[in-house]
C-alpha cells in the first residue's frame, strides 16, 4: 500500500504548464506535508511517448499524485501500470477540464456526462495499479445543470461501482460551450454548499473542495465542512502562502522556512539541474519563482530580473542570488 504519512488536508491543484516538477520541488521546500499534483498528462503520451519524460519527478516530492487525462479504460490502465514504476502516491483521473481540445478527445469535464465510462476507467486503472490510490477530480456539473443531484449521483454511482473513495470537487460547473478554459475557472458560480452537502451525504468518502480559495482563514473555514482543501492559482502566484500550512493545518512544530533559506536551496537545485545537462534551463525553473516575493518590497526587481530574456540566456543559476541581493538592496534603501 501507499507509504504516504499525511492526510490530504491540503493540496496544490494540478495545473497544466504550471505544476511541473520544478514548481513541485519549490513547493515541497515550503511545505512538507501538502499533497502535490502533476499537470494533467494524457494517458496516450505516457503509453506511446517517453514515460521518463512525462513521469520523472524529484525524490523530495512525495506525497505527490499523478493526474492522467483520457477516457479509454485500456489506455488509462496501461498508463497507470507504467506510472507504478515512478513512486506516485495517487493517480487521479481528470473529469474537470473543459478545454475544447480536451473535449475533442472526449475526456476531461465531458466525462461527467458518462459516469459508467468513468467507473470503467477508474476500475481499469485500479486493477492495473492495485497498490496505488485512484481518485477523481471533477466539477459539480456540466453546462447549465444546476441541481445538486447531478453531482450527488455522479459521486454516489462511483462510490457504488468503484473503489474510489477520494473526490476532489471544483465547486463550479464546466460550461462546455462558449467559455475559454480561463473563463471556466471564473464565470460559472462557485457553490461551496454543494460540496459540503456531498460530505454530509457521503460521510465515509474523502471530500476535497477546490475553487477560488485564497487565504488561510478561508481554508480553515472550509475544513469545518470537508476533509481537505485544494488550492490552485493562489499557491502559484503567491507560493509563500504555503509557508504556514505545516504548522497551522498539520500540527508540525518545525519552524517555517525563511525566504533567504529558500532562495539558497533553489539556487542549489537550479545549479544541479543545469549541470545535469539534460535540457533543463534556468528559464524552465525561474518562471516558477516569480511569485516568491509577492507583496514584499523589491518584488518588482525580483520579477524583472528573473524574467529578463537576456539575463536568463546566460543560463547561470547565480542570477537567483543576484536577484535576491537586489531585493535586499531595495529593502535597505526603502
Ligand atoms: C494554468 C492552469 C492550468 C490548469 N490545468 C489543470 C489540469 O491540468 N488539470 C486539472 O484538473 N485542472 C487544471 N486546472 C484547474 C485547477 O486544478 C483548479 O481546479 C482551478 O484553478 C480552480 O482552483 P483555484 O481557484 O484554487 O485556482 C488548471 C488551472 C490553471 C490556472
TrEMBL record:
Name under which the protein is recorded: tRNA-dihydrouridine(20/20a) synthase
Cross-referenced InterPro entries: Aldolase_TIM, DUS-like_FMN-bd, DUS_fam, DusA, tRNA_hU_synthase_CS
A single MF term (Gene Ontology): tRNA binding
Annotated organism of origin: Alysiella filiformis DSM 16848
EC class (word): oxidoreductase
Lineage: Bacteria, Pseudomonadati, Pseudomonadota, Betaproteobacteria, Neisseriales
Residue ranges of every copy of the DUS-like FMN-binding domain listed in the record: 12-315
NCBIfam families linked to this entry: PRK11815.1, yjbN
Cofactor: FMN
Record PANTHER family: FMN-LINKED OXIDOREDUCTASES SUPERFAMILY PROTEIN
Amino acids binding FMN: 14-16, 67, 137, 170, 210-212, 232-233
UniProt KW keywords: Flavoprotein, FMN, NADP, Nucleotide-binding, Oxidoreductase, RNA-binding, tRNA processing, tRNA-binding
Signal peptide: none
NADP among keywords: yes
Role, per record: Catalyzes the synthesis of 5,6-dihydrouridine (D), a modified base found in the D-loop of most tRNAs, via the reduction of the C5-C6 double bond in target uridines. Specifically modifies U20 and U20a in tRNAs.
Amino acid at each position: 500500500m501507499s507509504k504516504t504519512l499525511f492526510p490530504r488536508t491540503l493540496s496544490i491543484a494540478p495545473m497544466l504548464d504550471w505544476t511541473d516538477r520544478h514548481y513541485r520541488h519549490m513547493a515541497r521546500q515550503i511545505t512538507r506535508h501538502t499533497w502535490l499534483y502533476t499537470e494533467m498528462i494524457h494517458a496516450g503520451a505516457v503509453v506511446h511517448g517517453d514515460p521518463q519524460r512525462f513521469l520523472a519527478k524529484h525524490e523530495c516530492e512525495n506525497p505527490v499524485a499523478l493526474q492522467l487525462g483520457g477516457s479509454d479504460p485500456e489506455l488509462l490502465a496501461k498508463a497507470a501500470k507504467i506510472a507504478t514504476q515512478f513512486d506516485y502516491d495517487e493517480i487521479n483521473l481528470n473529469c474537470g477540464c473543459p478545454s475544447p481540445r480536451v473535449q475533442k478527445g472526449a475526456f476531461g469535464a465531458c466525462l461527467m456526462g458518462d459516469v459508467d465510462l468513468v467507473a470503467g476507467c477508474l476500475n481499469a486503472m485500479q486493477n492495473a495499479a492495485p497498490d496505488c490510490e485512484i481518485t477523481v477530480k471533477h466539477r459539480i456539473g456540466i453546462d447549465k445543470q444546476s441541481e445538486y443531484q447531478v453531482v450527488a449521483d455522479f459521486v454516489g454511482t462511483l462510490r457504488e461501482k468503484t473503489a474510489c473513495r477520494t473526490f476532489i470537487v471544483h465547486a463550479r460547473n464546466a460550461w462546455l460551450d462558449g467559455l475559454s478554459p480561463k473563463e471556466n475557472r471564473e464565470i460559472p458560480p462557485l457553490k461551496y454548499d454543494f460540496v459540503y452537502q456531498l460530505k454530509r451525504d457521503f460521510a465515509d468518502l474523502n471530500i476535497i473542495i477546490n475553487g477560488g480559495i485564497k487565504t488561510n482563514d478561508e481554508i480553515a473555514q472550509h475544513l469545518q465542512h470537508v476533509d481537505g482543501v485544494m488550492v490552485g492559482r493562489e499557491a502559484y502566484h503567491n507560493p509563500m502562502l504555503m509557508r504556514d500550512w505545516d504548522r497551522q493545518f498539520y500540527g508540525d512544530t518545525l519552524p517555517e522556512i525563511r525566504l533567504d533559506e529558500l532562495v539558497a536551496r533553489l539556487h542549489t537545485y537550479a545549479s544541479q539541474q543545469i549541470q545535469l545537462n539534460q535540457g533543463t534551463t534556468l528559464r524552465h525553473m525561474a518562471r516558477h519563482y516569480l511569485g516568491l516575493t509577492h507583496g514584499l518590497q523589491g518584488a518588482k526587481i525580483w520579477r524583472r530580473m528573473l524574467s529578463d530574456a537576456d539575463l536568463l540566456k546566460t543560463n547561470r543559476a547565480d542570477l537567483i542570488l543576484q536577484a535576491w541581493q537586489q531585493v535586499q538592496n531595495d529593502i535597505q534603501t526603502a
